[in-house]
Amino acid sequence: MDSPYVSRSTINKARLWKSNRPVLRWLDIELTERCNNNCIHCYINLPPDDSNAMKMELSGNELKRILKEAASLGCLKVRFTGGEPFLRKDFEELYVFSRRLGLKVAVFTNATLLTEKLAAVFSRFPPMEKIEVSVYGMKKSSYEFVTRVPGSYEAAKKGIGILLDKKIPFAVKNTLTPFNKKEVSRFDNWAKSIQGGEGVPYNIFFNLHCRRDERKNRFIRKFRVSPTEGVKFLMRDKKAYSKAILNFCSRFIGPPGDRLFSCGSGKGIGCVDAYGKFQPCMLLRHPDCVYDLKGGSLKDALENFFPRLREAKAMKSDYLNRCAECFLKDLCEQCPGVSWMEHGVLDRPVEYFCNIAHTQARAIGLLNPGEMGWEVSGWRERISKCVKKGGRDYENKY
Amino acid sequence: MKTNISIDKIYVPSKDVVSREVQGEFILIPIVSGMDKNKEAIFTLNETGRLIWDKLAKKKSIRKIVSELSLEFASPARKIQENVLGFLKELLKRKMIVSS
Prior knowledge:
Number of helices of chain A: 15
Strand content of chain A: 5-15%
CATH architecture of the largest domain in chain A: Alpha-Beta Barrel
Largest sheet of chain B: 3 strands, antiparallel
CATH topology of chain B: Arc Repressor Mutant, subunit A
Largest interface: A-B, 34 and 32 residues
Helix content of chain B: 40-55%
Number of strands of chain B: 5
Oligomer: heterodimer
Order of helices and strands of chain B: EEEEHHHE
Distance between the termini of chain A: 50 Å
CATH class of chain B: Mainly Alpha
Shape of chain B: globular
Number of helices of chain B: 3
Strand content of chain B: 15-25%
Radius of gyration of chain A: 22 Å
């Protein structure tokens, strides 16, 4: 810029908050749990015409009140997700309202309900972040095997076509299923043609249902890939994987002790569910961990409720003997939210994710065969050694 | 492209820009496309930039703004005018301010 009075940046790169972070930095909002797809692995979706859900959902005015409070607390980014957010008839209104508050809006969608009219809104009021589109396959058969809705493949193609035609920035992401495994390189190439060289995110290790619906859980479990298969998939680009994972390990991992929350959930971030319950993150819906915004405020939750919650300590002996002592804990996706979905409590090890973390650690040489993360005392040396080697150990194994 | 600007005109903040103060930083967030090549761009104003923005919102002419700043900063009007015009040309070019 040619003026000393102004500097140009982006919300992600701006030097805002470096010293003094706002009460709320980023807010996720699940506009609805309903979805027009019925994906085999989905942890949340309800039928699109679920009248009970519709009755319970926050009204447009309630959502606007929340958005206004978010902006007043310094929030610069809101993410609209679901279910399928475009199912809400007032999506456009809520989207423009958010943009007029000066919020950057991230949108998660399957793009099947995207219309020319909505695309025109995205063109006029850019979300300031790429729209994220879930795509489940490159062919009708593989796509609709996941969505279980005839016609959804064509609808998604049409929606994506509109985004391309209108030059609306978007990114695609995929889910690894038995029916699209053979399409991976084709998908990766197509995704790169859309979003450049950025890595393509895959949903590989499925979470169970967020409301603990056992009928859905049986289905989700059936389609979970084994830890070995999943890790092998993650390592299809060995160099990139090695670099990322070793960088992560050298910076973040270590035994967490008995404190349940070692992540940043509820610390300047949170997720409002479709019914006005404020969660510390997208996953954690344990009734004792959510705050009812219909009788309170984001500020009260962030300044009082979540900090108290984050003090919680694990009580279960299997957690204390394993997870609390395990240096791989931050590599593992086990967390209070996942434990809740799997076991109905906050502090029980989740075997599936424990196995995945151990498989990854063995693959990069952090663990020996048969060794468990909570048995290793010299974990810092292990990590340093592994970083020095650059993870070369696993190259021969995978 | 050359941007013509008249010192006796009144320019006001566009309705398509949102100004927000976040943790002591004063930022302008475009909400429509076309204000910058980067659709994710935001603009941070320093203290003087913010003063000018507030005066624009009060529908003051550029001449009036320059004269007030000259008094506030005890600085020659000529130098201030040069900087203010440079700043406003930048904003006008981006359609972040409009003629009142």
